[in-house]
Design a protein that fits this description.
binds zinc ion, 1 helix
């Protein structure tokens, strides 16, 4: 199951994300994309960066620590000919999104 935590994106970070990604629209709140976890850092997808295979993530921990990080996409795809790619970033904790068989996974937030 996917982590159910949401975080409102602070305005200054929204602005920063727009500058970094050239995206015209940044969600005002993002849901953590990791598989359900009890503690630690949460990661919500903000936007793809112009360069291929990189994305902007909102990383937060607790209520006060929140920042934007740029991460390369996770390169690990599911085995098999019609394999699905993972929606997370390289070296993420927990499972790949395609390992999460309990729900339909889509890479959009
Ligand atoms: Zn989380
Ligand atoms: Zn992955």
């Amino acid at each position: 199951m996917r982590c159910a935590r949401w975080r409102r994106v602070p305005l200054d970070l929204t602005r920063k994300a727009r500058e970094k990604s050239a995206a015209t629209y940044i969600d005002r709140a993002v849901q953590c994309q990791l598989s359900a976890h009890d503690d630690g850092e949460h990661y919500g997808l903000l936007a793809d960066v112009g360069a291929y295979g990189t994305a902007l993530w909102l990383r937060w921990h607790g209520t006060t620590e929140v920042e934007i990080v740029v991460r390369p996409d996770c390169p690990v795809a599911a085995p098999g000919p019609d394999s699905e790619g993972c929606c997370l970033f390289a070296d993420h904790a927990k499972q790949h999104t395609w390992e999460d068989t309990l729900e339909e996974v889509s890479c959009t937030s």
